[in-house]
Design a protein that fits this description.
Elements lengths: L1 E2 L3 E2 L3 E2 L5 E9 L1 H4 L5 E9 L7 E9 L11 E6 L4 E6 L2 E6 L4 E8 L3 E11 L16 E14 L1 E5 L9 E9 L9 E4 L6 E8 L2 E9 L8 E5 L5 E11 L7 E9 L5 E5 L5 E9 L6 E3 L5 E6 L5 E9 L3 E7 L5 E9 L22 E4 L2 E4 L1
Length: 375
């Protein structure tokens, strides 16, 4: 977006979950290095579903001081049990009741500047009296690669756009559909010698839905994941996701799958103990038909409604029991699967996202080149 007078993000509702809400303008390196640029982030709150907005806090950033560093970010901590936003200052922790209300970020600048903006929530773990804003665990899809379709092949390879980060996790969305036979079993590997495990698979008639995952221990250059049918010519689809912030001991905490021949595919439910990244896939045998993903909470990874393979891959970050559901236009045999990747445990101490300002009962805190001052 291009900012001059004022631009607002889409409002985010505080739902009472134990989150940190992070408002993050995305500035170019050139703008961060420009001492003539002044960018102000205004956090606003609405008690009437967005009809009117009131100021909660704001932070001002000066170009030049941000040179070579990360773009600015602003955090609000939300405590579940109390339903409050808490802020830490020299005089102690204060609380502002925001449970069920909406918050947004408004950006202003002293000159025209190209600037993206995002709002995200992070499960921050059990609040602590000594430092309520704990280091966020923040499981995320660091990058995804759209599903590639292979017709009449024995293997299929797909590469990430960027080299993944060692320590993250690779998730392979796999589906197989054969015109005359039960779909063959597949193996999964990459050109970096990482070790893949089959997280879940399910077969219905001539379609297979499957997830394979691997901890990324080695990564350099072009990172290509390949699935192989062991010599059987078939139709295969493969999509990828690189996951960051996952638990390294037990990354896949839960999985499930479903099969059927109706117009309402479902993956079955998974219920991880804490925050997780959920990935789901559905593949249908009947070709060239519409497939519709359940809208609530899910992000579309890839969808194909024509040709040899009707399939849909979706993902979301959250907690609790979740089931992925789809609707097929004409039905037919289908297979679906879901996995939940466990989030790493939070470390104590300061948040990994830079704290730039907090509010005390509506009194804004401004941070600039000269430091912090209460308005």
């Amino acid at each position: 977006m291009r900012v001059r007078a004022a631009v607002e993000t889409t409002p985010t509702r505080i739902t009472g979950v134990e989150d940190t809400v992070v408002f993050a303008p995305q500035l170019s390196a050139a703008d961060r290095s420009d001492p003539a640029l002044t960018l102000t982030m205004h956090v606003e709150v609405s008690e009437d579903d967005g009809a009117t907005w009131q100021p909660l806090a704001h932070c001002t950033f000066q170009g030049g001081a941000m040179a070579g560093g990360a773009a600015p970010a602003f955090e609000l901590g939300v405590r579940n049990r109390a339903g409050k936003v808490f802020v830490s200052e020299e005089e102690g922790t204060r609380f502002v009741d925001l449970d069920g209300q909406m918050v947004r970020l408004r950006l202003t600048a002293n000159r025209t500047v190209d600037c993206g903006a995002r709002v995200r929530t992070i499960d921050t773990g059990t609040p602590r009296d000594d430092h309520p804003l704990r280091g966020p665990r923040s499981i995320a899809a660091a990058q995804t690669k759209a599903t590639v379709i292979g017709t009449g092949v024995t293997s299929l390879g797909v590469s990430f756009a960027a080299t993944p980060t060692v320590g993250n996790h690779c998730v392979a969305f796999c589906d197989v559909h054969h015109t005359a036979l039960s779909p063959p079993a597949i193996s999964c590997s990459d050109n970096q010698s990482n070790s893949y495990s089959e997280a879940v698979t399910n077969v219905q008639a001539r379609v297979r839905a499957e997830f394979n995952t691997a901890p990324i221990a080695t990564a350099s250059g072009t990172f290509t994941v390949t699935i192989d049918s062991g010599g059987t010519s078939t139709n295969m689809d493969l999509g990828l996701a690189e996951v960051s912030g996952q638990d390294t001991t037990t990354p896949v905490e839960a999985s499930n799958s479903g099969i059927g021949s109706s117009t309402s595919p479902s993956s079955g439910a998974v219920a991880p103990a804490g925050n997780a990244l959920y990935c789901a896939i559905c593949v249908a045998q009947t070709v060239s038909q519409a497939i519709t993903e359940e809208a609530a909470g899910w992000t579309l990874h890839t969808e194909n409604e024509g040709g040899a393979g009707v399939h849909s891959e979706i993902y979301q970050i959250g907690s609790g029991s979740k089931t992925a559901n789809w609707t097929l236009a004409t039905g037919g045999n289908w297979a679906a699967a879901i996995v939940a990747l466990k989030e790493a445990a939070a470390a104590g101490g300061h948040p990994t996202t830079r704290r730039l300002g907090k509010t005390r009962f509506g009194r804004p805190v401004e941070i600039g080149r000269q430091g912090t001052r209460v308005i």
